[in-house]
Amino acid sequence: MGFFPPKEVTPRKGKLPAPLWLMAGSVLIFLIFTFGTLQYTSRPDFCASCHEMKAEYTTWQESAHSRVNCTTCHIPPGMGNFIKHKISALEQVYRHVFHLVPDKIVLKDPIPNEVCLKCHVVSREVTASGDLIVPHAKHIKENGALCVDCHARSTHGGLAETKDFQPTEANLVKLTTLESKDFRPRMAECMGCHNGQKAFYTCDRCHKTIKTPPTHDNQTWASAHGELAKADVVSCIKCHSIPLGKFPDLSKPTLAEEVRSNDFCLDCHLKRPPSHNQTWALGHAREGKADRIGCLVCHDEQKPASPEARVNPVYCTKCHSQVHPKTWKLDHPLVVKKDGMGNCMKCHDASSCQRCHDANNVKR
User: Fold this and answer.
1) Which one-letter DSSP state was computed for residue 244?
2) φ, ψ for residue 226, nearest 5 deg
């Protein structure tokens, strides 16, 4: 029986070996899965799937940007930036899974202008309402301002500024009541630069029309404005504090603090009022009882802690330092008989004696 060598098997042209087909199929499936994952995780409803982002999702729905995907603004243009962002987002997934998300979510890097300029232009010279002069090109191109320096509230309504916000159902319902004004820039953003140092702060440079409230045209406004200020000091602050570069907490303003910190108010309030004549010390008790808050706008009850405090140097305990004992009504006639009424008249007037004596049928 003869020996025949094995024939060489020549692969058929045009066909790949099975292992290569398997590898190519695996790569294709991986690419399809990756593409689908990237697309799914770029949808706004994916952001809302994490409870800590519910508030951001709700405010986005209420804003003018509700038809713009989150990634359109939060990822700069370019595939490289897209991939870089997706890789860095793994940290957010890690924090979510292990409950390490901070109570207050703050954007690490501000949104660059190139993102905004994909849809918006810088040629606008006035606001959409037409009542404010805002040359956008000058702010951005010449002064290097970021769009979000002024428009940080445009999508989330200043949610990042809210202290101790919790995404409870009740709070989320409140966010659905936000109005268009809640997404507009506030004057405080303007005054961050327009404070007289970085940029001018005169009203007419930006405001095309400045309307004086009707109440201010009243001839008695100078003497009567205090009552309105006590009722609504926030309205006063918006015109008389913020334009001066003062940014008080509008949620808890106090009349005394606002007057003393505002040069506009102090121009008058540090002057002696016409009503405080030479006999004012004797009769001021009645006015003080009727309008204690008004007195404490300019005066303190105790001696100011700092001699540089912007407050009237006259304080209550400067004169009212003596506290009478409980038996004073019975004992004071002896003191008056011995020392006279000079010390008494520093705080009291004759009517004080008369009211008490008449009430108790005491003869003088």
Assistant:
1) G
2) -60, -40
Report whether 258 contacts 251 (CB < 8 A).
Answer: no
Indicate the helix (H) or strand (E) that contains 96. Answer: helix 79-97
* Residues paired with residue 132 on neighbouring β-strands, in sequence order: 207
Q: In whole angstroms, give the CA distance from residue 186 to residue 78.
A: 32
SS3 152: coil
Yes or no: say if 186 and 149 are a contact pair by the CB < 8 Å rule: no
The pLDDT averaged over each successive group of 10 residues in the chain (364 residues) is 56 64 77 73 82 88 92 88 85 85 80 93 85 90 92 86 76 88 84 78 77 80 81 78 61 73 75 80 77 80 72 77 78 85 74 79 72
Q: Say how far apart CA 194 and CA 246 lie, in whole Å.
A: 11
Sequence-distant (6+) residues with CB within 8 A of 4 are: none
Angle between helices 233-240 and 221-231 in degrees, nearest 10? 120
CA distance 281 to 284: 6
The pTM assigned to this predicted structure is: 0.56
Q: Which residue has the tokens 């659905």?
A: 176
CB 70 within 8 A of CB 47: yes
Catalogue all structural domains in the chain, each as residue range(s) with its CATH number: 26-183 (1.10.3820.10), 226-268 (no CATH), 272-321 (no CATH), 322-364 (no CATH)
The dihedral through the CA atoms of 240, 190, 58, 178 has a sign that is: positive
Q: What beta strand segments (E) does 244-311 contain?
A: none
CB 233 within 8 A of CB 253: yes
**CB 160, CB 106: distance < 8 Å:** yes
Distance CA(339)–CA(329), nearest Å, equals 16
Task: Give the DSSP letter of residue 246.
Answer: -
